[in-house]
Amino acid sequence: MANPRMSYLRGKAMRLPMLPGVYIMKNKDGEIIYIGKAKLLKNRVSQYFGSQNRHQTKVLKMVENVYDFDHILASSEFEALILECNLIKQHMPKYNILLKDDKGYCFIKITNEPWRRLEFTYRKDDEKATYIGPYMSSYVVSQSLDAASKIFKLPTCNKTFPCNNKNLRPCLNYHMNLCSAPCCGKIKKADYDASVDEAIAFLKGGTKKYVAVLEKQMEEYSENLEFEKAAAIRDKISAIKRMSDKQKVIFSNDETRDVFTLARDGDEICINVTRFQEGRLASSDNHFSQLDETLENTRGEFIKRFYTLHDEIPPVILTDGDVEDAELIEQWLGERLGKKVQIQIPQKGKSFEVVNMSKSNAYEAMAQRKFRQKADSATIELGELLSLSKVPEFIESYDISHTAGADAVGGMVVFRNGSPYKKSYRKFIIKDALGGDDYGSMREVLTRRFNEYLKEKETGEGFGRLPDLILMDGGKGQVKIAEEVVAQFGLDVPIFGMVKDSKHKTRAITGDGREISINSQRRVFTLVSSIQEEVHRFAIDYHHSKHRATTKKTGLLDIPGIGPKKSETIWREMKTLDAIKRADIDTLSKLPGISLKDAVNIKKYYS
Prior knowledge:
Elements: H1 6-14, E1 21-26, E2 32-38, H2 41-48, H3 57-64, E3 68-73, H4 77-91, E4 106-110, E5 118-121, E6 130-135, H5 138-151, H6 172-175, H7 189-223, H8 227-245, E7 257-265, E8 268-277, E9 280-290, H9 295-309, E10 316-319, H10 326-337, E11 342-344, H11 349-371, H12 377-385, E12 394-403, E13 406-416, E14 419-420, E15 426-429, H13 438-456, E16 469-472, H14 476-488, E17 495-500, E18 506-511, E19 514-517, H15 522-554, H16 564-574, H17 577-582, H18 585-589, H19 596-606
Parallel strand pairs: 7-10, 10-11, 12-16, 16-17
Antiparallel strand pairs: 1-2, 1-3, 4-5, 4-6, 7-8, 8-9, 12-13, 13-14, 13-15, 17-18, 18-19
Helix pairs in contact: 1-2, 4-9, 4-10, 5-7, 7-8, 12-15, 13-14
């Protein structure tokens, strides 16, 4: 939809000065929807209102909603960048890249009460409290709080301090030396406050910095012959190091690094941010948005937004590609950190490895988001192997089961994104096909299935949804039957068969007159094997339950000495109830597992 004010906006943009500054886009309600900075305002802003074909989807949507814009001049492009970041932090416009994911950000809350507590929270909902954060990873915050509570012996319960109940006893944490038990008056208020202050310093400063402070204090106490205080600090240092040793060291020289990588699917992007503190992996989080003009621009915009909200700035930032305004961003972050900051694109070594790790996480998150749940990457690989036009999100598979033609049934299982989707499983009682005619039974099952599709296709659910792929439990014969049925309904569904070896193990996929080996495709092999085993299990289980019900109705299980196993044998050998009734004792006693006594009891029962 074209913006009706395009002519006005283009004319206004052309009157802007060729100077650095910030531009502020607004909608018809006067709300700020986008803020950007420019080295030359006239050139940059006029690009938005020129040819629309060059813009990405996100920019087109923004331009459609612009009613007017303002601008602020700056003395330099660097000053414009700082102003842009401050304004975005203040207004959080809709079309700037926002840092938010499914979980949101979290904080460490320091309550405002006489006996302060440290708590995990997602919101700053208490004006009297103070907060540490924001943090991206709730897991990291939870782990850090847990470590701080144990090291500094802070309570994690909901008891009130101090407690007026004189008979209250300390809990197990106190006896495990994990809590100072303020509920029972085991610690003085001043000492408790000191422990909380130390925990806050630990959470803010990180392991290495805080340990250095403690070690200095321990030396001072030792020199002053205050050995008990020195020993207490020594124990804290030991506890901190024990916690720290549980984390895997990635960078051996205690390096602090942030890694930004980008996965793209059309205009959709996922940016993974992996943070390393003191050489150890601290967090890894994914953020979803839309491409902002170019990959270089998107990286630059995201990094600026990220450090607008986060105060922890590393000396080195690693990325998987070029960053727009890299030098300006380095200068801005360097002034905030108080020392040089570098944005690097590593080509080898450990830094190159962690960038690849981060990028893999971004692509995995993109795949999961696309399929709306954890998607087994084998479905993507299977689609490519079979040259399908789309990833097979929904896969249906069919199998027939019977006992020597008796109680024939069909089973249909559905896999969604590589996992069993049991709400769409279906069972079929074979009604028309002759007993033992597997091809006829399969034709009946598929015909009934697609008849139901014609009735329910408006719903798009259950039978009303066509599969992206059908995998038949069998070879070319079963595939041919399925292709004929699908063709009769005028449908276009890819059909392949799952071929077993002599040991009844999945060996290959057949279709289009060819056989495709999957032994070398580990993930595909596992997926196809799982589907084949599941559809076989489902059909067999249904057949057994139906056969047991049929057998019970005939009365076989009411005969003394005849249990499910012998009943199964009798049905397999005799085929019908009429044949069982007409058989003499000699014939019955010759059946496998049936004794003379059993034969007499059977004959007596039906006489």
